[in-house]
Every structure is written in structure tokens, then in C-alpha cells.
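Work package 3, deliverable 3.1, input record:
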Amino acid sequence: MDRRDDIPELKAKDGLSLLGRIPLVAETPEEKLDDATTPVSRFFVRNNGLLPEVPEAPERWSLTIDGEIERPLRLTVEELKRRFRVKTFRMVLECGGNGRSFLVPPAEGNPWTHGGVGCAEWTGVSLSDVLREAGLKSSAVYTAHYGADPDKSGSRDTPSISRGMRIEKALEEHTLLAFAMNGEPLPFLHGGPVRLVVPGWPGSLSQKWLTRIWIRDREHDGPGMTGLSYRLPVKPVQPGASLEGVPLRILESMPVRSIVTAPADGTAFPAGTRSIAVRGAAWAGDDTVVSVALSLDRGATWTDAMLEPPRNRYDWTRWSATLPVPANGPYEIWARATDSTGRSQPLEPDNWNPNGYGCNAVHRVAITVGLGA
Ligand SMILES: Nc1nc2c(c(=O)[nH]1)N[C@H]1C(S)=C(S)[C@@H](COP(=O)(O)O)O[C@H]1N2
Ligand SMILES: [Mo]
């Protein structure tokens, strides 16, 4: 795949794989996700439209909250910092289509492998604190998010994307209005001056260049909320089948997934290597990861990885293991996580849907021992 830093917006990035130029989309090769905190230089990029103009005075960027509330608010970033309690959490942000490229027949959309994900330290204020100040009416059931980016055609009349969530998710402490990432002011490419971070749910809810949150009395119907967008069949369908008339549900909590971040796919170990150190990360939407099992023999035997406790809710779980290698030969490392509800990752892509959401088949990394490069 194309790995490039030669387009201006990706200059500061470190070897991301370009999935699309307009809109600009780039994913992180799994082996570049080997840090507990993903550096900004390695954080994936997903846009649905064009980039907005770079603001001249980020501190004066303002955000309005309106709709089903007692007191509509207009807040600058500076006011957010001053008037509300500032918090930092390390949390996973993952595109709803992560893993999509493994589906057969192919699904519509960016062909993510497993690298449409990153885990950063987000600093901001809880959306719930701001909504408390605004005073939610009893009719408040859903949010609607707006950003400053024009759509693909350059038009500002239609949002590039405008999704929303049930008010219960908006009221979670970890749902942030974030203005810093890894201790630095939120980079423009990642939605600076201010974005939403809605951990555990599809990345598309984490609106960048945030200008408005409209509190609604019904499910939001902006671009990204209707038709097949972020919707899955309630019951499994035949791969490739039309979904006409099939009952759908909105994708909310993302399914459990694990990635191997070392060794890199394609690593050639010298002859006689008899053990391999393997590292990675696992996460599970709103749930937690309880175990990660590794196999070097296509699932015949499994070894449990050691898990590092996550720093806070929605942080990913870093894991490590040493796998014995019985003989020289070609191998695949398989990593399979299980969440606190007892669900594990399927060995093969499952739950086919036309837009390929939530495809969490196990990550496989091919290596050789003593077979040369
Ligand atoms: N304003 C705006 N916010 C947006 C998007 C967008 O196109 N415009 N894309 C969403 C999607 S689909 C994802 S996966 C995340 C990606 O965030 P990142 O580019 O910081 O990695 O941003 C979300 N927020
Ligand atoms: Mo996304």
C-alpha cells in the first residue's frame, strides 16, 4: 500500500498509509501503534469532506449549544477552560469501518485494515458538565454535531458529516469537548481548536472543528445518520445481499479487537530463533478486555498474553507474551481478545454488511524463522 508523507497535510506524519486524498484519509500500519500513547505523528486521519480554513485566533473559536435546553450557550475555548473542570483521559478513537477491507464480497468505503485507530491523551471538559449548565429539558433525547469543514464539493451548506448520539452517552463523564491531545493544543488535522471525543463508539461521533451541538427531541437525521450509514442488520444476512426491508440498528459500542504491534508483518527471524516476543493492544468499545489469546499454529493451540491494566476507562489494554517457536518455518501470529461480556473476535470476518462496519476478525501477522528475507 501507498505509505507517504509527501502530501502537505501529512508532512508531519510518520509513514501512514494513504487511503484517499479527497477526502483525506490515512491509516496507521499496526506496527506503528506500538506505543501506549499514540503520538500525533502516528495518529490516523479520517475526513469526510474538505479541511476547513485554519482559524487565526484559536482561543476565540466558539461553540454553540442549543435546542432542548433551558439556557443556550456560546462558549469560546478559553471559556471552556475557565468555567469547567479540565480532565485528561487516555482513550481509544476508532473508525466505525476499521477492519472493513477483510470482508468478502468487498464492502463500500475506505479499505481500512486494522489501523483506523489510535489511543491518545485527550484533555478537555466533560460535555455533561456543559449540558448541566445549559439545563437539559425533559425532551432532550439525542445530540446533533456540526463542524466547520465544507463537504466534498466545497459547499458549506451541507455538512460533510453530522452525527449524534443518545443523550445517555453524551452524559458520560468520558465524553469530552477536547482542546488538547497528548498535552499539546489539539492539532488542526485532528479537529483543533476543539472537537468531541466520544470513546468506545464509532469515531464519526467525535466531531472535529466543532461549532455546534444541537440537543434534539428525537434521533438526529443529519448526514451519517440516515439510510445505511452506521447501521447494521439486526440479524445476520447473506454476504452481498441487499438490505432492503431488513431491520437495522445504529452501530453504537464498537466490538472487541486486538492488534499485534510487534513484530511487524513480514519480519524474517534468523534460523534457530526459538522464542518470539509479541506485543500489542486490545480494546472493546464500552466494555473492557479480559483476555488476549495468541496462536502461532492457526488456532490449534493458544497462549494467554499478559495484560497491562488500562490507565482509565476507554484506554486500550497493552499486552505482551513470549511465544515458543518449535522449528524454523513460516508462521502466522494470531491475536484474539475477549471482552467482559464474554464475546471474542471471530477468526474470519463475520456479520457482513454493505458498508462494512464493525469487522473485528483476528489480526494475523505473517513471519518467517530461518527462511531468509
Ligand atoms: N468535522 C468532522 N469531524 C469528523 C469527521 C469529519 O469528516 N468532519 N470524520 C469523523 C470520522 S469518520 C472519524 S473516524 C474521526 C477521525 O478522527 P481523526 O481524523 O482525528 O483521526 O473523526 C470524525 N470527526
Ligand atoms: Mo470514521
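The CA atoms of residues 241 and 354 lie 8 Å apart.
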